[in-house]
Amino acid sequence: VVSVSPKIVDYAIDNAQRAFESGVWSRAPAIYRSKVLSKLARILEERVPELAKIETLQTGRTIREMNAQLGRLPEWISDYFAALLRIQQGLVTPTQDNCKKIYPFSTSVAMSYLGLQPFNHPLLIAVKKIAPALAAGNSIIMKPSELAPISVLEFSEMAEAAGVPPDVLTVLPGLGPTIGKAIVSHVHIRKIDITAPILVFEDTDVSCAVNGIAFASFVASGQTCVSGTRILVQDAIYDEFLSALEVKVKSITSRMGDPMNPYSTMGPIISMHHLERIEYMVSETTGSIVCGGQRMSGLSPLDGFDYSKGAFYAPTIVENISSSDVLWQEEVFGPVIVIRRFKGYGLQMFREPIEWLQRSGLACVG
After folding, report:
1. Half-sphere exposure (Cβ direction) of 83: Cα atoms closer than 13 Å
2. Are 270 and 59 a contacting pair, CB within 8 Å?
3. How crowded is the C-beta side of 36, counted as CA atoms within 13 Å?
4. Pairing status of strand 93-94 against strand 101-102
5. Number of helices and strands (H, E) in the chain?
6. Measured between alpha carbons, how far is 291 from 244 in angstroms, rounded to an integer?
7. Measuring CA to CA, which of 104, 108, 177, 203 is 20 to 30 A from 265?
8. Residue 65: its H or E element
């Protein structure tokens, strides 16, 4: 994939703004935009198997993950955003406390909309940004990760085939420090969309918690914005929990293989450069490595896949780290769990976890 130039960035964004101001899409009847989005959903649905393979080849994530993930995208477009445009009267949506009412509606803004994407969920995150913006009548500029741009480029061609007018959806591949910077600094870009510890208490179902945390921590090889990599466990069940988690992690490791194998549990890291970053961070930890802690080599016990063909890093658990540890202070963005125990009962049991959260430079997600 060839990177665009800053000159092309200016040209593309100016065209997107002109398309918006022309009203060819922004002032098109809602029912027309709904029909186009519905057609786009049908085209996407037909190509899900092909796109899942593309996602696996460009990210290393397992084919079973991608089949499940991409299979829902046509529904998002047709069953929500296209359907929403067919609603003539505002639908009153109740909230849980029945104190407020939500009136869903879509409207365009007098500007181009920019979506910046990571490499971990290329098409999923693209659709989450593109579908609502198209429904609202906006012009959209997408800057996919330079490591995984192909599926997003394919989607833009599908949108054109479905009837989205020229220059309404534009994909600009390139490096973040150059092309990304040129895009976000453009005068017409006024809206940008860019995309923690888990507490385990003594009354939890340990088996259920272990399964949930393993999924949250190792899906996409830990390369997600909301990866559950820092775990705080109440003292009374800490040993039991850690033992069960170690068994689970070793099971995941033993079933890693060819990402195209539907029985493979976890794929490689996105690049050798990122693998080396993870290796360095783990090597700098002051904690104790319970399992993993190294890149994988040799042949997979699952299917004989040669780990040297990819940037495979073993699912890792690290315990007893300090609050100043690099693994606590920085996002690993990889298959590494750090785990600590906390004590206390009643309201006091929240004191220590909160103090640990405050010592971290990262926000709480899970």
Report:
1. 8
2. yes
3. 22
4. antiparallel
5. 13, 11
6. 12
7. 203
8. helix 63-71
Helix (H) or strand (E) holding 191: strand 189-194
> What class, spelled out in words, does domain 197-358 have in CATH?
alpha beta
- pLDDT at 118 > cutoff 90: no
Q: Is the domain defined by 6-194 classed in CATH 3.90.380.10?
A: no
Under a CB-based contact definition with an 8 Å cutoff, are residues 166 and 182 in contact? Answer: no
Nearest-angstrom CA–CA distance, 87 and 83: 7
* Structure-block tokens of residue 54: 């593309």
Tell me which H or E stretch contains 124.
helix 122-136
Residue type, 329: Q
Domain extents in the chain:
6-194, 197-358
Residue 357: what pLDDT?
A: 62
Sign of CA dihedral 203, 204, 205, 207: negative
Q: How far apart are CA 128 and CA 124, in angstroms?
A: 6
| pLDDT band of 345, cuts 50, 70, 90 | low
Give the distance between the most distant pair of CA atoms in the chain. 65
Residue 317 carries which DSSP code? E
User: What pLDDT score does 356 carry?
Assistant: 64
In 3D, which of 154, 149, 129 has the Cα closest to residue 141? Answer: 129
**6-194 matches 197-358 in fold:** no
Residue 160 CB: number of other CB atoms within 10 A? Answer: 14
Cβ–Cβ < 8 Å for 171, 182: no
Q: Which long-range contacts (CB under 8 A, 24 or more apart) does 70-76 make?
A: 70/123, 70/124, 73/44, 73/48, 73/123, 73/124, 73/127, 74/41, 74/42, 74/44, 74/45, 74/48, 75/41, 76/127, 76/128, 76/131
Sign of CA dihedral 41, 43, 46, 51: negative
Residues in the chain: 366
> What tens digit of pLDDT does each residue of 164-173 get?
999 999 999 9
Find residue 94's DSSP bridge partners. Answer: 101
Bridge partners (DSSP) of residue 340 are 232
Which segments of 163-266 does DSSP mark as H helices, in order? 181-184, 206-218, 238-254
Torsion of CA 271, 276, 281, 285, to 10 degrees: 130
